[in-house]
Amino acid sequence: MYSSGAENGSYSLTFLGKKVGRRHSVAPAGKQHAWETTERSSCPEDRELSSRPGRVPVTAQVLEDLPGSIPELKDETPCPIIHNTQFDQYEDNTAAVCHHKTLWMKRWDAFRCWIGGNHRKHPGQEVNRGSLESQLSASSDADQPADAERSQDVKIYIPYESAELCITQIAEDMEALKRRHLEKLQQLEEIFQATARENQEWTVQRIRSNHQSKMNTLRRILDLYQEKVEKKNADWERSVAALTAQNEQLQEEQRVERRRSKEEALQWDREKSKMLELFSNRLDVLHSHQASTLQELQMARQEVGKVQEMLTASSQEQQEVVEEGESSENKGLPDQQQTLACNESDQPLEGAKARLEELKESLYQREREITELLEAEKSPIPPIPLPPCRVLLPTVIHKAHAICSAVDETRALLDLMIEENRVALVEARDKLGRLQMTEEDSNDRETTDQDGFDEYESSVSLLQETVRGYEVSQLALDCIKTGESPATNDCDAVSELEDILGRGTIGTTEGVKSVGQQLLLLQDQLKQVKDEKRKMIENYTSERTMRKKYYNMVEDMKGKIRVFCRIRPVNRTEVGGTTVVEKMDDYSVTVESPRGPREFQFDMVFGAEASQEDLFHDTNRLIQSAIDGYNVCIFTYGQTGSGKTFTMVGDKEQKNPGIMPRSFNAIFDIIQESSSKFDFKVSAYMLELYSDRLQDLFVSPAGEAQAQPQSHGPARRVEIKRNRKGVVFAQGAETKEASSAQELYALFLQACANRHISATKMNLESSRSHLIVCIMVESRSLTNGSVSTGKLSLVDLAGSERAAKTGAKDHQLKEATSINKSLSALGDVISALSAELPHVPYRNSKLTQVMQDSLGGNAKTLMIVNISPSECNLDETLTSLIYATRVKAITNNAQRNVENKEIAQLKEVIMKLRSGQTVEEDI
Ligand SMILES: Nc1ncnc2c1ncn2[C@@H]1O[C@H](COP(=O)(O)OP(=O)(O)OP(=O)(O)O)[C@@H](O)[C@H]1O
Q1: Which Pfam families does the entry mention (predicted)?
Q2: pTM over the 0.90 mark
Q3: Nearest-atom index, ligand 1, CA of 636
């Protein structure tokens, strides 16, 4: 503020470091000390006053230089200049003094006003000269407008002592002010420091509480996660325990079943070997009988030779006797001698007859033996036990299903866990990031609260561990999902996680890890179980196939009718509908009926994908039998539109020929192969059973109509007859010979052209009649001359139909009624035969008469039951399958129609001899 200092024997007055005046220490002679302003006033009055001793001009500049922070002056504070100036010494100039006093009073007021008003400025701030002066002038103007023009340049001359006093006073005031300012400053500093301290504490407090609440939230979240993880762990442990228990149970069952299957397989092997032994024994017996029969035949041949010799000898003797008789007649010998000679010649003939009787007896004996043998063949064969796999398979499949569903559930749970863990991991990472960012902000604000920092550190480390825990869980869960073991040390993160796992710091991780390991174990076990199941199924299938093969052999030997089942593909009208038929394997088919699935067993089951070749492949064997001299019948059965004609005949364009055309080829292929040993003759007749009337298909209806009026007789009737051996034949039907497959096929086409076919709702080319194609193959052995006659009957039955479904009306309805009637008669026959009833109603229908030798007769019969896979035909399918199952129970007595050359000739000789005919020598 103000200071004074000695300067070359003079004192200078400075205000706030600015030199404002100087006082000479040694007053000039005759002059009092006076303050001189450093700035000289340009006003002449000023100069005048200042030149006067004891006076110092107090200019606006001086006042202006006063500090702005001068404390407010009280109203009663007297003007120091007036107070300190001894105006008495200016008695000579009273008016001027008064004027000055008044002026000073005004100025003091103005000064006081200025001090209390806008002049309170921050130290160092420049004083607004204009404002001071304007105020000074304003105050003077108010009271004395006359002085207005001089107010700008008012110069006050005060006595030096007064000025000194004034200045001293001012200096003291200033000092006091300075002190007060300093005190205030100190106070302010203290307040500031206290406030800053308080503020800091408050901020720290707030940050701490903020952190605390965040920490609490985090802890709560962590607790929640912990709880969740524990719950999950418990769930996992429970499911793992359940799976382990299930697995153990399964393994136990598997062990038991494996043991049982082994035992049963052994038993089955034993049965099989027994069966094979039985077969081979029977074969041996058959061979030995064959050999002995041949021997017998040889002997018989020799005997016949002897008889012939005897006959020749006797006839020669007779001849001689006759000749002798004639000569003796001529010579006149007596009658007695002639009679004697005749009696003698009769003796060898008697011997020959006796020998013939003997031979006959021995042949009958052989016949009886062979019949007994055949009877023995028919004797019941011990039942074949079901293979063990058959019993096991449903259990295994059930268990496998249970495991698969458990695995699916576990997978879903695992996916859920992975997702939840991933979300939790992301959240924990976010939280950690946010916490770290908050801490960085706090660091920027330079808060140095140790407790808060410690808490922050602990929460960060806790969060980091949680994040790690989640990362490990994620890794473990991923490993579980992919089914791979966790790759250790493949990267730093994994090794770190492995460290954590190893230290066992995170219970959750350990739990997850153990669950993962157990799951991996379970997966392995499941794989093993699946492999074993697959192997068991394979074993079962092969066992079943073998069993079926042997079973079929046995059934064949028994003469059982073979039944194949063929499922046709869905047709255009059925596309999009439900299919209820499923081929389980080569021998069984299941139908989903409203009362649950029903399984049917057949000798062979062909699915929709089976080709005509596949079907014929298994049928081919019967063609060979027909050529060997057996009576063979192949017929198709099923509802309308189920594919009977497709199976028997094939499609219209013959791109997929059926059994009939293939059989024609096969017959001639076999004939070709055996042409060096046999001489064959193939002939055929083809009939249609239409509206219970048998029609010869080689005669066209037009031709028949033409022939009838010319012959004037009744229409040629075809009738079913049976020969002595029970083989059915059509009397009155034209039989045509064929020397090649093409010729036979041409005959077949000719017959088909005469068939009744029309379109129904169910089938565009529905057979309205039953087609019967009979091919007779006569083979004569070139080596021994034996003759066998085989008959191959190929029957394409018309399909059973419901008028409502087929939309049959009028004529078609009559056809349908007739078809259904004949089929129902066939059903009755099948039922009677399968139930082994004493009476079989063959005569109820022409169809059953035609098929008499095929069902319960002496034929080798194959029935193909055709079914539709669709739900809309479910009833018909079930009916067909039930009938087919019944047919399987029917036993035929297949016999070969062969006549041995010698026996036939012997019989002929006997017949001739009996009838008294002469027997030719070349027999
Ligand atoms: N296995 C199959 N593969 C392809 N198409 C088939 C099969 N089975 C039948 N079809 C077709 O189904 C339709 C009806 O067959 P098909 O004429 O053989 O029946 P159907 O049982 O003889 O009938 P209907 O008793 O009325 O004569 C035909 O168009 C036939 O081509």
Answers
A1: Kinesin
A2: no
A3: 21
